[in-house]
UniProtKB/TrEMBL annotation:
Organism in which the protein naturally occurs: Companilactobacillus mindensis DSM 14500
InterPro entries: AB_hydrolase_fold (IPR029058), BD-FAE-like_dom (IPR049492), GDXG_lipolytic_enzyme (IPR050300)
Keywords, in A-Z order: Hydrolase
Record-annotated BD-FAE-like domain positions: 30-215
GO terms for MF: hydrolase activity
PANTHER family from the UniProt entry: AB HYDROLASE SUPERFAMILY PROTEIN C4A8.06C (PTHR48081), PEPTIDASE S9 PROLYL OLIGOPEPTIDASE CATALYTIC DOMAIN-CONTAINING PROTEIN (PTHR48081:SF6)
UniProt keyword annotation of Hydrolase present: yes
Protein name in UniProt: Putative lipase esterase (Putative)
Length: 274
């Protein structure tokens, strides 16, 4: 495996992508083009959680996918959106440009987001697949088609009461454009199949977020698989000792940790791992 960090830019703004590229296996006797997963970690738009970066990346590497971690825009002196959306478009385009060098199957790019990163991915699965909105937010310049989405305890609708973000001021720091406040509203016939999971006891992001997303996918007749686990805190990541915070056993949850095997089975069932 080869790892590296690259700097990309959109609209004069620089951002980083961390790559975990699989090596070819000589024993196969032929070259293999692998799927690519692009991960957006959580962190409440104030940081990028490393617990949802390399540990997740290496786990999916072991399942036969290249992985790229997108360190999207955070809250600062200008809103997160629409710049974070453009960063995603640029990243997908950048990945495709390396198809021959890295042996990438361009038809099998999976976007994966956790918590706040889930909002970035959810927004892209709606706004980024709508022809009119793509023009509105300057996305048509990118070769950014993708195959599927995986969401873990995602922020979907920022207007939900008693759910992140609680403070309206933070909502405006994330986006002054209310289009990005309710990402489920922009799912459309072009949106991609989605695997989504959350825990019923998530104390930060109300479970109604994922439920609204799944309901809209179902209304549109789009492929969706949803797993609502009965227990577990927000931000479980892998739910194992690999991503447990030192001395905090609440980050362990053997049952919810099955999400990654379920996601792998779903990817296989959908034909993304052939």
């Amino acid at each position: 495996m080869q790892t590296r960090t690259d700097n990309l830019s959109v609209s004069g703004h620089k951002f980083k992508v961390k790559s975990y590229w699989l090596d070819q296996v000589a024993d196969f006797g032929k070259t293999v083009d692998y799927p690519v997963m692009i991960i957006c970690p959580g962190g409440g738009f104030t940081f990028h959680s490393q617990r949802e970066e390399e540990p997740i990346a290496l786990r999916f590497n072991s399942l036969g996918l290249h992985v790229v971690v997108l360190e999207y825009k955070l809250i600062d002196d200008e809103p997160v959106f629409p710049l974070a959306l453009q960063e995603m478009g640029k990243t997908i385009d950048w990945v495709k440009q390396q198809a021959n060098l890295r042996h990438i199957d361009k038809s099998k790019i999976i976007l994966t987001g956790f918590s706040a990163g889930g909002q970035v991915v959810a927004a892209y699965n709606g706004i980024g697949t709508d022809p009119k909105l793509r023009h509105t937010y300057s996305l048509e310049q990118y070769d950014d088609d993708f195959a599927a989405v995986i969401l873990g305890y995602p922020v979907i609708d920022m207007t939900v009461k008693n759910s992140f973000p609680i403070d309206e001021k933070v909502m405006y720091q994330i986006s002054t454009d209310k289009t990005f406040w309710q990402t489920q509203a922009y799912l459309n016939e072009h949106s991609k199949p989605t695997f989504i999971w959350q825990t019923r006891t998530d104390e930060l992001v109300s479970v109604s977020n994922s439920l609204m997303y799944v309901d809209k996918m179902d209304q549109l007749g789009l492929p969706v698989e949803y797993h609502l686990f009965g227990s577990g805190i927000h931000g479980l990541a892998l739910g194992t000792y690999v991503t447990k915070k030192p001395g905090k056993d609440k980050y362990l949850n053997a049952w919810s940790a099955e999400w990654i095997n379920l996601a792998f089975n779903w990817l296989e069932m959908m034909g993304y791992l052939e």
